[in-house]
Amino acid sequence: EVQLVQSGAEVKKPGDSLKISCKGSGYTFTNYWIGWVRQMPGKGLEWMGIIYPDDSDTTYSPSFEGLVKMSADKSISTAYLQWSSLKASDTAVYYCARGMGDLWGQGTMVTVSS
Amino acid sequence: DIVMTQSPDSLAVSLGERATINCKSSQSVLYSSNNQNYLAWFQQKPGQPPKLLISSASTRKSGVPDRFSGSGSGTDFTLTISGLQAEDVAVYYCQQYYTTPLFSFGQGTKLEIK
Predict the structure, then answer these.
(1) Strand pairing partners for B23?
(2) I need a labelling partner for A43 at 20 to 30 A (CA). Which of A53, A109, A112, B50 fits?
(3) Distance separating alpha carbons of residues B13 and B19, to the nearest angstrom
(4) DSSP 3-state percent helix, strand, coil across chain A (nearest 5)
């Protein structure tokens, strides 16, 4: 089955670091970009950026440049999204998506609260 | 940046009737080299990831019911749901992927049953 499976929900404190994952299966992982999308509570979809797992070429949306880091390990067909210092405003559901969005992960809920 | 603007923000339609959602881009998403519009429509139900319905402005993804149709070109696009069914209640988003690898979504249109 072609799918993207994301890591589970996280509850963190402000200032904590975090790395969430997105594992692809059922297709050639290195042939497709993986994008990350933020959805804050009750809000719309925001495209954060995209990574090409074959060479880790990464492009960030200007709104997210410097705030998060995207990476990938093609040997295990997994893409990552990480923060070095979380803020309460990072509370959201984060989705990974293949290419322009023909396949999506189930989402990872990140809650940042003191 | 290409800004996508949807109208209306919310919509209530009777079962069996037609729902129409509009999307306008701040610049053309039509690639002249292949005459394709880089415009997609997504459906998101509560607690679920978005689901791709239509790409290239009018090409339904395999398995999407034919009551969903997309039209338009350049900067103005429409998603039409003919014969609304209860399971169509969702938030609908348009997305441009003209500026690959960075994309942008409309703000979303919430569709409810009247």
Answers:
(1) B6, B77
(2) A53
(3) 6
(4) 10, 50, 40
CB contact under 8 A, A35 and B95: no
B96 to chain A: which residues are within 8 Å by CB?
none
- Enter the DSSP assignment of B17: S
| Contact present, B38 and B75 (Cβ < 8 Å) | no
Q: What is the pLDDT of residues B33-62, one digit of tens each?
A: 999 999 999 999 999 999 999 999 999 999
Answer yes or no: do A45 and B108 touch at CB < 8 A: yes
- In sign, the C-alpha dihedral spanning A32, A36, A42, A44 is negative
- Cβ-nearest to A50 among B40, B91, B102: B102
What type of residue sits at position A89? S
CA atoms within 13 A on the CB side of B48: 13
The residue written with tokens 């609260």 in the block is A113
Q: Compute CA distances B27 → A10, B1, B4, B20, B76, whole Å.
A: 38, 9, 9, 22, 10
DSSP, residue by residue, A97-108: EETTTTEE---E
B101–A101 C-beta distance less than 8 A: no
pLDDT attached to residue A99 = 93
